[in-house]
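hey so i finally got around to running the thing on that chain from the lab meeting. sorry it took forever, my laptop kept dying and i had to restart like 3 times. anyway pasting the input first so we r on the same page abt which one it is
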Amino acid sequence: MGTKKRSKIEKYAFESISSKEYQNRDGEIHILSPEEQKDLKRIRLVSLSLAALAGAVGVVACYVPYHTWPEYFPDHMIQIPIWDEPHPVPVVFLVFSLILVIIEIAFLTYNNIRTVREVSHACGYPSPTDKEFEQRVDQLVSVGLEKKPKNQSELGINPYFGMPKFYVFLITVFNIIKATLTNALMKLIVRRLLGRYALRMLVDLLGIPIYAFWNAWAANRVYKEAKTRVLAPPNIQILLNHLVRTQKDNPEFRAELYHILDYLAITKRAFHDNHYLLSKFALAEFEIKVDPDHVHDEQFLERIQNGSELTKKGFSQLMLFGMLIEGSLSFTEKRKLKELSEKGIFIYSMEESKMATKDYYEGRGIGFLVQG
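ok and heres what got predicted. didnt touch it at all, straight out
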């Protein structure tokens, strides 16, 4: 192994993911066999079930003792600077809740790491013979620990180009506290509807389906991310081999490649390891020097619109692949593809785009994009 310095949790995740025999049954990582697809469905079901169960148990463990034995959770009168009189604060309950939250987070982290490990092993990725095996595993570790990569900035690519920093901050904060906000809103609605008839324990236990849902949602995101991380590298190479073969003598496409990659990241509005790999390898394959100070040119679409049909085809192939690489097309991406299609620079229909996305995520490869 390499000498990269890792924290204890990163070390555990790395050793866990790289510890087992890899089960690739057909030798083709970019294609999922029926057995692999069956394994992945089982892995997803177990992962989401455990995450949802953790959310439900956490709520029950928190509020049932609190309401059943209130004498063990007394309020303490504490002087709060902004008020003149001391106010009651449930210190014991807050400490108890914090301990439960820490336990739940630890379990959910373990569940994420286990999910990533099982997905990677079921698909036979990465191969132990891969010269970048350690780097591949580290990328999977970041999925399990839900660490957001920012390595695209090394290439001068900024997904947040043109977006106010305060807006980015608000999105981040909302993503962190959305479960708490949902729970608070549900309690407010129930109290409004039932008034004094709403028992406190009943209102507090409404958090069971809410936290179970958000935990399952987060677990599904980790599962999906792990699956697309496994599928992406071999499919990236297949696409780039095709683009090099078809576009290597096309100076128009090569001149706009950096801007296309930049535009993809801006459309996504997020850093992503798959996009980093796509950008890094694309620049290398077309022998374009990395520019950390690269500046996005918003006029490049006009040049492609006035360019050759070959350039538009290469642009369309790279754009669609860059969008489906995460396994689905968002509402924003569909709208963007529709706009590009109306301008005459995106050659695929929405039905074809959806079909290609489904084929990719279900492990049937990207044959549609690289034909011809």
